[in-house]
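Deliverable D2.4 — example input (structure tokens):
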């Protein structure tokens, strides 16, 4: 009889652990998560490989020349290094981050032709919608 109670207690503990873990994952617990109402810091800076993929995707979308692609890749890498340096010392100032973004976009547009600038703006809007959903 005592053995059945111990087995039952173990099963109850295991079920409790699984349900707690499942609930935490559902609520968005963990480092990358974010439950409702929970404030998060900035996302992690992309790796070099992720930056290269971003520029490759952009390049195929707006048809960058090899020279433009190299320049834009350098701009992206520098931009994310600057962002990382700003966020490493704590929560960044929203206005400062917005100014960095605008400067970055202006620098990228300076490399592009007029037609590519329009495509770049459309590309950004499309990707902004993807991130929000």
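Example output (designed residues):
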């Amino acid at each position: 009889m005592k053995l059945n109670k111990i087995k039952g207690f173990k099963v109850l503990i295991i079920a409790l652990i699984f349900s707690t873990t499942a609930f935490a994952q559902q609520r968005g617990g963990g480092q990358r998560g974010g439950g409702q109402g929970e404030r998060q810091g900035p996302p992690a800076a992309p790796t070099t490989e992720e930056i290269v993929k971003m520029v490759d995707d952009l390049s195929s979308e707006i048809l960058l020349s090899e020279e433009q692609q190299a320049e834009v890749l350098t701009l992206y890498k520098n931009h994310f290094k600057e962002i990382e340096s700003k966020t490493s010392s704590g929560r960044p100032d929203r206005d400062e981050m917005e100014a960095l973004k605008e400067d970055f976009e202006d620098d990228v547009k300076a490399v592009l032709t007029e037609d590519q600038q329009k495509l770049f703006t459309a590309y950004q809007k499309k990707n902004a919608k993807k991130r929000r959903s």
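The mean pLDDT is 80.
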